Amino acid sequence: LELIYQLRKVNDSIQKLSTVNFPATRVYVTFETEAAQRKVLELLSVGGKAIKRKDVMKVEDEAHLFRSTLVLNVKEADEPSTVRWHDLSDRFWDKFFKMLLTTCACACSMALVAFIIKLCRNKSATFAAYAIAFFNTVFPEFAKLLVSYESHASEGRRETSVYVKIAAFRWFNTAIIVYWITPFTSTLSSGSDNILDGVFEIFLAEIIYCNLIKLMDPMGIVNRHYLAPRAVSQEEMNSYMRGGEWQLAERYTSMTKLIFFTFWYCSIYPGGFFLCALALFLNYFSDRFNLMRTWMQLPKLGPHISSFSRRYFFTMAISAMSLASSYSWAGFPYDNLCEKDTLEGHDDDNIDDNVFGNYVGTWDAVIADGSGSVEVTVSEGDTSYKFCQQSLYWYGKGFNFPAIPFWQTEGEKWMTEEQEQLTAFYGWTSFILVVLVCMWILRRAIPTLFYRANYQVCGEDQGIPFSSVVSISSYVPQVKSNIFPYPLLAVNTHDVDEELYEWKDPEKPYSYYDITRDASQLLKDRMMPEEEIQSLFSRIKHWPPPPPERPGREK
Questions:
Q1: Cα distance between residue 116 and residue 127, in whole Å
Q2: CA 341 to CA 383: how far, in whole Å?
Q3: What angle do CA 251, 257, 262 make, to 5 degrees?
Q4: What is the pLDDT, as a whole number, of residue 552?
Q5: H/E/C letters for each residue in 478-538?
Q6: pLDDT number for residue 262
Q7: From the centroid of its chain, how far is CA 125?
Q8: Cα–Cα–Cα angle for 414, 417, 420, nearest 5°?
Q9: Are 102 and 146 in contact (CB under 8 A)?
Q10: What is the widest separation between alpha-carbon atoms in the chain?
Q11: Which residue in 242, 302, 429, 513 has a CA-CA distance of 20 to 30 Å to 214?
């Protein structure tokens, strides 16, 4: 009865959707030759500014206007297998607000994880390191859940959104949180609070824990050896045997996280470069094993993630390295102590002359956490020190940028002459680098404001016709399903040549996945004409090229 109720509910939803008018939002065109595609893109491509303003004066030939009045937004399409057909009709502001909500949820999760890691850090550095590794492992699933509520025109852009969220979380969770929750004076000191010990523990957790979890593949074992034998249908069993789900964005961030973490602490922990190389080496072989043995095949996502990572990540990582290094060099020796006058010749009128004399002798100084005591001897003429804040992150009343010796106040100078020279060089270099990177990112982020056209030819024409490609694929509207092993086709399969499909079910024909037939059978009860039913779905027109002429044949 429950299944019948759900079936009726779905049928009612389909009948209601059949009364809604869905205008065409995009038109995909596949050319037979690459030269023809490039020629059309070069002639019809205009800047985004002209498209937004509908500036027909930017179009050189009036014949290139749509219906002689509208400027076409023509650009190179994504790969056919990456198009998210059910998100193409969403409006811009709907996409914007969805992404804003998911971004806020991601920021809240980062704050919550920071609080949990701080509690773990209070226990031990090892406990905090494995907590960081655990959250780095499970957060991609949460990011995937968040991005599922967003609207993206292609899988490549969706993966880019996942990449940004996971990268931001992992960078913050792995590098920045540890720096913030560790006391400044514990940066180089010995003990459980030492930030260097925490950095080493994080590297160790990334090398051992993360790779071990990937190689064990616990969910894949459950799917293949427990759920698949108990499936009630062949389609369900095939779905369990497809392999483990993975995300290219998550694998990219696994690499960039280690690089960013190494860059952030390289000034105080240069040995991190060797540990990072070892971690990347092991990640490569574990990922290659899973890719060949246990992971499922992904669609051709295109260059979105790689180009985004190449353009923005490495520039931001180098900028972060320069900033963190400049503040790290400025903070030496990390004890918040500044030298005062000697015990014999001090001239501070605010301090009783007998104070120093009272401390002369041998004393047992108890460590603040009560873990033990040390013997301290104070002699006449020893140098005395006073508290002075050496962290330029929050020096005085706020954040000081760049990290240069200028911010030291009179009477609270802790830097040596060589340290001031090095800090000034690092500080001004980081300032210039950050300014240049910000300008470059803005320049790359809004290229259509600087160029008339947004299409540029990349590479040489290979001269290979589309119809002669062995792994041919075309823009066939389809929707992925968790129940069926292959996508459901949202187009009449009678209009599509079987060579245009990217996949093939060895047991069932393409018509088995044709949802237009289900809609026709359901909507015929409402006496809806067949032509009107077909207009509810996308349409495909295929004009195959003429067969090549045989040698010696007369024209």
A1: 11
A2: 7
A3: 140
A4: 52
A5: EECCCCCCCCEECCCHHHCCHHHCCCCCCCCCHHHHEHHHHHHHHHHHHCCCHHHHHCCCC
A6: 92
A7: 27
A8: 70
A9: yes
A10: 119
A11: 302
Contact between 408 and 424 (Cβ < 8 Å): no
What is the arithmetic mean of pLDDT over 76-102?
87
C-alpha torsion sign, points 466, 469, 475, 476: positive
Over its C-alpha atoms, the chain yields an Rg (Å, rounded) of: 32
**Which residues are bridge partners to 385 per DSSP?**
339
pLDDT tens digit sequence for 187-244: 887 666 678 888 888 888 888 888 888 888 888 888 888 888 988 888 788 888 888 8
What whole-number distance in Å separates Cα of residue 168 and Cα of residue 181? 18
| Alpha-carbon gap, residue 286 to 291, rounded angstroms | 9
End-to-end CA distance of the chain: 68
343 pLDDT tier (thresholds 50, 70, 90): very low
The token duo for 494 is 């009678």
Distance CA 405, CA 415 (A): 8
Hey, what are 146's tokens?
Answer: 């968040």
- The tokens describing 28, both together, are 């995909």
Pull the structure tokens for residue 468: 């002669």
Question: DSSP 3-state helix, strand, coil percentages of the chain (rounded to 5)?
Answer: 55, 5, 40
Confidence of residue 102 (pLDDT cuts 50, 70, 90): very high
User: How much of the chain, in percent, has pLDDT values that exceed 70?
Assistant: 90
φ and ψ of 237, to 5 deg: -65, -40
Average pLDDT over every residue of 303-328: 85
- For residue 107, the model assigns a pLDDT of 92
- Residues recorded for the chain: 555
154, 75 in Cβ contact below 8 A? no
Q: H or E segment at 35?
A: helix 34-44
Residues 435 and 446: their CA atoms lie apart, in Å, by 17
Instruction: Report the alpha-carbon distance of residue 257 to residue 172 in Å, rounded.
Output: 9
The dihedral built from the CA positions of residue 446, 451, 452 and 458, taken in this order, carries a sign that is negative
- Over the chain, what is the mean pLDDT? 82
